[in-house]
Design goal:
The chain is an alpha+beta fold and about 850 residues long. The chain has 6 domains: about 70 residues, Phenylalanyl-tRNA Synthetase, Chain B, domain 1, CATH 3.30.56; about 110 residues, Nucleic acid-binding proteins (OB fold (Dihydrolipoamide Acetyltransferase, E2P), Beta Barrel); about 190 residues, Phenylalanyl-tRNA Synthetase, Chain B, domain 3 (3-Layer(bba) Sandwich), CATH 3.50.40; about 70 residues, Phenylalanyl-tRNA Synthetase, Chain B, domain 1, CATH 3.30.56.10; about 200 residues, 2-Layer Sandwich (BirA Bifunctional Protein, domain 2), CATH 3.30.930; about 90 residues, Alpha-Beta Plaits (2-Layer Sandwich), CATH 3.30.70. Helix content is about 25%, strand content about 25%. The protein is built from 20 helices and 42 strands. A 7-stranded mixed beta sheet has the order 28-31-32-38-37-36-35, with helices on both faces. Strand 18 and strand 19 form a beta hairpin. The longest helix has 19 residues. It is elongated, with a radius of gyration of 39 Å. The termini are far apart.
């Protein structure tokens, strides 16, 4: 929120106005983030108010050029003549008050003004726009001052806050979502008062001196399920549509980042910034019948103030009259009842809406607004009447309007009711125990009263604290403690590290998890952190069957990205997105990995044996004590299974070409090798078998087992998947579930025999549909204890072995742990292995 320092400090009784930097530091000290302190750059030289007397249109140029005669009093180069100034803007007319920079003026940005000849005329100065004065970014036209603001020749620098002796400053304050009250001078001024321990005068409690209330301003009916918490309205008649916005209000709106439009609209915006209550002004002459607040009906439409016709959703809250919707509650009004240049009868609305309903509507219709920003963070329902009174009084004062005595006030917070919140019980010494220091006696009560709470001290010695209506975030003792601590100052809380008992540290599973990352990084992979969310369309791109369990994904109720509304059931979508992004930026040789959890509701297990998905309602557990075991089970039961997995993708060259050789592309074998690297960290032996599992290529997919447990898949992705996702050809991937790998405290140690090995080779001819891994496993089994290692070193297929068959050449290493093995013993073991392969797979020696 942008707010001028002079406005922010107005409701605070300070002995001396602090500097902008001191004010920013004080707000930071009480817990607010000040993103920027912008001091308006002062103007030096003759910057004056001028009145336009004549305008000569110079039509011989391609763009609009005007030669203006401007009355600048006695400040011009010739005190007896108007000043001649060339200007390209067209948003002003004869008689308007403007700001003129005369020769010798230096504007913000060290821009010096001098008299010069241009467009065939002598221009003695410049008529200034807002951005040229450093008052904003608007360059759509020059600044036109409201009539009566000043006289021609008056010094404009103090008027604009650009006086070198006292330049205006603007604070840009970041407000957290739970502190909607701070999006106003009323709320932030209270924080300034707390920071400086100064008295605060609530602008909402100022008597506006309006007529006594008599009757209703307008008939209003609020339906029970509409989400309207309060609807207040007041009517003014006889408004002068031509009445200008007073300069002090005009200037404050500009500095706050809001463009002035007209008096009626500017007043509602000003009250929103001052009190935090968004308002809307209707042209009462165009409102037909009673006002009804209800949910929108199917097929209803509303043309909003931006002249866009919008189809309303049944979840939208609509303000309606007899003609239908005339406003989208909390977001934007309708064009049918818009205040125009001819409006003299105005109906002022100050309502409070359900924050969630406004947030959904603003996002659904893509209509972010200052009003919606406040409503979705909660608005004080008790300030609605004060806001209508303040707006009506301003229109009466500056628009010569008549405030009608009728007032409409519908909602749960009628006048005089301070709060509907129940008192919060808190131990008097709770802030001291939380902070670890002893605060001064009465500090807690004083700070809670400062933020607006009503504090009682019951007989039990504790505190009964009733939060104010503008602080819905105060719901429990911990919230009250936070208020005391931040206002007393976080800097006084000692910073002491807790002492941990010896022997604690990472668990064995956590150490293995870190070792996996290090092992893959050592192997040449780079770790990435992709999004855990994915799109429903990715399952179709992967070619998953309709009943594939991976399609059973958790849907987010409020996704950050509408295209990624599911919690991923596999790590591959995020990793493949990273590949696409890197390839699009010219990186084509990639080896990426990620270790993370996925959500698998199809594999959830409840403590009572029932299905875990879809979940039931989770219980609400307080923070005053440790939850019971039953409460913890009830919290965990609705959660889907979240197994820990590691995924890897490879594309391009695994070994790059260079002077050392031709290089080698990444293949499915490298993906399997990554899985073996991970298994080695756990001391597990992987069994690799052929499989058909989307999204992998059906002929180049390996199922990975540890014993009889399937732990993952690896191989080359299906060509159709690569085309669907825009991936490079022959991209390979691996995904392995770490939770299924055995975690051993002591890994097996290799036994090194001091005796020499016997090396034998064997070539077996088998049908091509027999997996190599099956033949290798059979040889290992048949070779017995003497067979130390089996390695495939050649594969041949051709006419010599016959159609539909291939030759597999294995290197066998035999060794005995207690003696030197003889060749005959090794040959006998080899023959047993070959015989078993022939029996099981039809293999014959080549």
């Amino acid at each position: 929120m942008r707010v001028p320092v002079s406005w922010l400090t107005e409701p605070v009784a300070l002995d001396e106005i602090p500097s902008a930097d001191d004010l920013a530091e004080s707000l930071i000290r009480v817990g607010f983030e000040v993103e920027d302190v912008e001091t308006l750059e002062p103007v030096t030289g003759p910057l004056v108010v001028g009145r336009v007397l004549e305008i000569e249109e110079l039509t011989e140029f391609k763009k609009p050029i005007r030669f203006c005669r401007v009355d600048v009093g006695s400040r011009g180069s010739d005190p007896t003549q108007p000043q001649g100034i060339v200007c390209g803007a067209t948003n002003f007319a004869v008689g308007d008050l403007v700001v003129a920079a005369l020769p010798g003026t230096t504007l913000p940005g060290d821009f010096s003004i001098a008299g010069r000849k241009t467009y065939g005329r002598v221009s003695d100065g410049m008529i200034c726009a807002l951005d040229e004065l450093g008052l904003g970014d608007d360059h759509s036209g020059i600044l036109v001052l409201p009539p009566g603001t000043a006289d021609p020749g008056d010094d404009a620098a103090p008027l604009l806050g650009l006086d070198p002796a006292a330049p205006e400053a603007v604070l840009d304050i970041a407000v957290n979502p739970d502190r909607g009250y701070a999006l106003s001078v009323r709320g932030m001024g209270r924080e300034v008062a707390c920071a400086f321990d100064a008295p605060f005068g609530d602008p909402a409690s100022v008597d506006q001196g309006l007529p006594a209330v008599s009757g209703e301003a307008w008939p209003v009916r609020v339906e029970p399920d509409s989400g309207c918490r309060r609807f207040a309205a007041r009517r003014v008649t006889g408004l002068d549509p031509t009445a200008p916005t007073p300069w002090w209000m005009h200037r404050r709106l500009l500095l706050a980042g809001i463009r002035p439009i007209s008096l009626a609209v500017d007043v509602t915006n000003y009250v929103m910034l001052e009190l935090g209550q968004p308002m809307h002004a209707y042209d009462a002459a165009r409102v037909t019948g009673d006002v009804v607040v209800r949910r929108a009906r199917t097929d209803e439409k509303l043309t909003t103030l931006d002249d866009v016709s919008r189809a309303l959703d049944p979840d939208d809250v609509a303000v309606c009259d007899d003609s239908g919707p005339i406003g989208l509650a909390g977001v934007m009004g309708g064009a049918a009842t818009e205040v125009t240049d001819a409006t003299s009868d105005v109906l002022l609305e100050a309502a409070t809406w359900d924050p969630a309903a406004v947030a959904r509507a603003a996002r659904r219709h893509k209509l972010p607004s200052e009003a919606a920003r406040r409503f979705e963070r909660s608005v004080d329902p008790a300030v609605a009447r004060a806001a209508t009174d303040r707006a009506a009084a301003l229109l009466e004062r500056y628009g010569r309007a008549t405030v009608e005595p009728g007032v409409t006030d519908v909602g749960p917070f009628p006048e005089g009711q301070e709060s509907a919140a129940a008192p919060i019980r808190m131990a008097l010494d709770l802030p001291d125990r939380v902070a670890g220091i002893a605060y001064a006696r009465g500090a807690s009560v004083r700070r809670l009263v400062q933020v607006g709470c009503a504090v009682d001290v019951p007989d039990d010695g504790g505190l009964a604290v009733t939060p104010p209506t503008w602080r819905p975030d105060l719901t429990r003792p911990a919230d009250l403690v936070e208020e005391v601590l931040r206002l007393e100052g976080y800097d006084v809380i000692p910073s002491e590290l807790p002492v941990f008992a010896g022997g604690t540290g990472l668990t064995l599973a956590q150490r293995r998890r870190r070792q996996v990352s290090r092992a893959l990084a050592d192997a040449g992979y780079q770790e990435v952190l992709p999004s855990p969310f994915t799109s429903p369309s990715v399952f179709d791109a992967f070619g998953l069957d309709a009943d594939d369990p991976r399609r059973s994904a958790v849907r987010l109720a409020n996704p950050l990205d509408a295209d990624r509304s599911l919690v991923a059931t596999t790590l591959l979508p995020g990793l493949l997105d990273a590949v696409v992004r890197n390839v699009s930026r010219g990186l084509r040789d990639l080896a990426l990995f990620h270790v993370g959890q996925v959500a698998r509701p199809d594999r959830g297990e409840r403590s009572d044996g029932k299905a875990a998905w879809p979940p039931g309602p989770a219980p609400e557990v307080g923070v005053d004590a440790r939850p019971s075991d039953a409460q913890i089970r009830a919290l965990l039961d609705p959660l889907p299974a979240q197994p820990l997995r590691v995924g890897a993708v490879l594309t391009g060259a695994w070994e790059r070409a260079g002077w050392w050789g031709e290089g080698r592309p990444a293949t499915w074998a490298d993906a399997v090798g990554a899985a073996r690297t991970i298994a080695a960290v756990y001391g597990a032996e992987l069994t690799v078998t052929a499989d058909r599992h989307a999204p992998w290529h059906p002929g180049r997919c390996a199922a990975l087992y540890v014993g009889d447990v399937l732990v993952g898949h690896a191989g080359e992705l299906h060509p159709q998947v690569l085309e669907n996702l825009g991936l490079p050809p022959r991209t390979c991937a691996m995904e392995l579930e770490l939770d299924r790998l055995p975690v051993r405290e002591v890994l097996a140690r290799p036994e090194v025999s001091p005796f020499p090995p016997v090396l034998l080779d064997v070539a077996l001819v088998t049908p091509v549909d027999v997996p190599v891994a099956a033949v290798q496993a059979t040889l290992t089994e048949g070779g017995g204890e003497l067979l130390e290692d089996v390695r495939l070193f050649d594969v041949y297929s051709g006419a010599q072995v016959g159609e539909g068959r291939r030759s597999l050449a294995f290197a066998l290493r035999f060794r005995a742990p207690d003696r030197t093995l003889t060749l005959d013993e090794a040959a006998a073991a080899r023959d047993r292995a070959v015989a078993l392969a022939g029996e099981r797979h039809g293999a014959v020696l080549r």
